[in-house]
Amino acid sequence: MDFTRLAHTWEELAARMKENGDTTTPGKMLQLADKTKRAELNIAFCGHFSAGKSTMINTLLGVNLLPSNPIPTSANVVKIRGGEKAARVYTLNSGVITFDPDTEMEKLKQFAVDGDTVESVEVSYPGTFLDEHSSLLDTPGIDSTDAAHKIATESALHLADVVIYMMDYNHVQAEENFNFTKTLKDRGKPVYLVVNMIDKHIDFELDFDSYKESVEEAFATWNIHPDGIFYTSLAEPDHPENQYEELRSKLSSLIANREELVGHSVKSAAEHLIEEHIQVWKAANESVRQEWESKLDDVSVEGLDQRDAAAVQGALEQAEAETAALDKRTEEARSKMEKELTVLLDNARLTYFSTNEAARSYLESRKPGFKMGFLFAGKKTEEERARREEALLADLREKVAGNLDFHFKELMNKLPQAYEIRDEEYNAAVHATTIALTPELLAAHIKDGAQSREYELNYCSDLSNGIKLEYRRVGLAFIEQVVSRLAQQVKAQSEGLQARLNQLRELAQVHSKLAALTAAEQGQREQLQAIWQKGEQVS
User: Fold this and answer.
1) Exposure letters 4-36 (e unless 16+ CB within 10 A, then b)
2) Mean pLDDT across 504-522
């Protein structure tokens, strides 16, 4: 694997993270890049203070490099690797200080007492099963109450390729063990459990096979599946269940498979750091996010969960649609009612054969020279004209009453009901409506010129249209009354809806800002993952 190319990818990620204002994660990414360049395998020993980590490491190395008590530094993580004998302490105030690992390790404690900040401790020592490219990390106990120790352990795990998690025989099923190991497995770390001090086991209380079975079941209950479990005793090397040699063999096997393990581990670690960076980025935006979210709580809309963006958007779209419908409602109602009136008038037949005959007789009486008899001709002529006029009017009144007036009033009464308008005064006015058919109406439609059968038919048509025109005029006046009442109704509804609409728009705007923030976070993640993908393709 080309570890140099891989390291350059991590450096590119670190630079991008730094551009985003992250002051923590870029440093970890650069540490990972440095480790990647050296293709160094880090095997971290974790567990409680009482689990015997330091003693186990000293035993595995065959030399007592680690003090019996933990080093009280802010870092408190010691890295041991193969190579030329040296101990280096990296401090903030005094630079790098070198010690003799055989005789001067206890001096590390003095630096902490003097107030100097120790960042890290590295020990290289020849003659162990470690080489220059493999190391063991001794971390603080996970039961430490010192926050700095917890940070140090987290930092060590960030660079760890394999974790050896040690537990005291009597404290295997402590909840902290399950939580910690599950976190490790969720991060994709190979985890090997070591149950130490099995010499405490009393066989007559519980046979050892049953004890091992209970351990495996306990971790499986937490959905934790370790890569291996070893049962060890350093106090009784000859204990029949002691798997110390198997553990040591496993470590040697891991070191032999170093490059493959490191290649997989650093890619997984880089991916985890991307998520860590996103969390840092989100934390930086948290105050803004909380401010916007508090605005969501300040706006209360009846029957709506204002924190549900989809529900808010749906309610807004519905309210906008209702508002738009209300804005159009009066004109649409006017158009609909006028159309109904037009259909009614168009379908109303007012002239029949009897009407045509009465019209022909009436028109004949209005011709110049029309005369009845010889004696008293003037009087008889006027009486005949009057009779024929009344006959036509009577016919028309009959047809209008049966074919138009009844249906007209029925329609006018129904119009407001369609919009839930109740108005007794309006209904009374409709009922009292009378369209007078007068002699003047008949005379008004007579045209000069020769009269023929076609003329008579046209005259009847003109009469019908004239009557309908009057009904239209009256009908439009009634429609205008309904529209006016409807406009008042719409105005009241609009005022109530507008208040809700304003609230929904305010909520939607806040959700839009929150969504933009989330999209920005996702965009950052995708950009970093695109860079990470280049590393994933390195082989």
Assistant:
1) eebbbbbbbbbebbbebebeebbebbbbbbebb
2) 88
Residue 137: how many CB atoms within 10 A of its CB?
24
Summarize pLDDT for 15-43 with one digit per residue, the tens.
999 998 888 899 999 999 999 999 999 99
Whole-angstrom CA distances from 329 to 271, 325, 471 are 58, 6, 25
Tokens coding 323? 């508002």
Please say whether the dihedral angle defined by the alpha carbons of residues 138, 144, 149 and 153, taken in this order, is positive or negative: positive
How many CB atoms lie under 10 A from the CB of residue 144?
17
What is the C-alpha end-to-end distance of the chain, expressed in Å? 5
Whole-number Å distance between alpha carbons of 324 and 336: 17
| Among the listed residues 155, 178, 121, 137, the one whose alpha carbon sits nearest the alpha carbon of residue 54 | 137
Give the pLDDT mean for 109-137. 76
pLDDT tens for residues 469-499?
Answer: 999 999 999 999 999 999 998 888 888 888 8
Residue (of 11, 74, 45) closest to 135 by Cα position? 45
Cα angle vertex 165, ends 196, 112, to 5°?
100
pLDDT in tens, 236-247: 999 999 999 999
Q: What is the pTM of this model?
A: 0.64
Spatial neighbors of 102 by CB under 8 A, at least 6 apart, are: 85
Residue 378 Cα to chain centre, angstroms: 96
Of 326, 322, 328, 334, which Cα lies nearest the Cα of 484?
A: 334
| Region 420-434 average pLDDT | 92
